[in-house]
Amino acid sequence: MNQTSFPKLPELTAIWQDTLNWQPTPEQQDLFQQLFELILEFNQQLNLTRLTEPEEFWEKHLWDSLRGIAPILSGKIASHPGDKVIDIGTGGGFPGIPVALVLPDCSVTLLDSTRKKITALTTILEQLNFKNTIPWVGRAEALGQHHKHRESYQLALLRAVAPPSVSAEYALPLLKIGGLGILYRGHWTTEEEKQLTSAVKQLGGIIESVDEFTTPLTNSVRHCVSIKKVKPTPKQYPRNVGVPGQKPL
Ligand SMILES: C[S@@+](CC[C@H](N)C(=O)[O-])C[C@H]1O[C@@H](n2cnc3c(N)ncnc32)[C@H](O)[C@@H]1O
Predict the structure, then answer these.
(1) Is 181 known as a binding-site position?
(2) At 214, phi and psi to the nearest 5?
(3) Which Gene3D superfamilies does the protein's record reference (predicted)?
(4) Tens digit of pLDDT for each residue in 41-57?
């Protein structure tokens, strides 16, 4: 018998519907709960997240992860079976795991340079019986120069990984032409936008949109900055491991 009792995640169906025009099926709600429990269990040995209260986990991990793909959930942007998604710097699996959970026909690569985190995520994903996730240990700079990965993704997600122009250098080489990178940000400044505009131009991209919103439980201001690949990224990008962060474009 399982001795551990875990807190229950809120369902908040009306908020899903009002904010994303989408709501989880009972099976998806059940998977959210299982994911929460597995993360709490693994968190006892490894720091996967500091957000362990049910409401904050719901808002900052589940809702925020899915807010980034709101245009896909609402059908405004089409996703196709077999589309490849990559979560760069996934950490404890966010935003990539909730995205994989709601887009079962897409293949979601969860990339992180910390082996321990990817080992934990691999076990969590096996226990959830996910078939559409690929946990991967590596650096975004190396993957972007790998012929099997370069220009092969439709969607790249980056939350709390690096400043915007560094995130762009990680994401754009991996995207197909027409593919989108979603940068999950807190506050957004005109200075950041200026730097990002210059960086994406050098990398073959444009800023497609900057979407400002507040989170539904704590009213925190957040932004999703969407960058689009419009032409091939020059061969020299991404630069060697560590260089994008040390000398941002
Ligand atoms: C602050 S955590 C964010 C985790 C998660 N995205 C979230 O929002 O909860 C940043 C993660 O990015 C990873 N990371 C940083 N730079 C990276 C790079 N160049 N390539 C791959 N992973 C990277 C780190 O190992 C760390 O796990």
Answers:
(1) no
(2) -115, 150
(3) Vaccinia Virus protein VP39 (3.40.50.150)
(4) 999 999 899 998 999 99
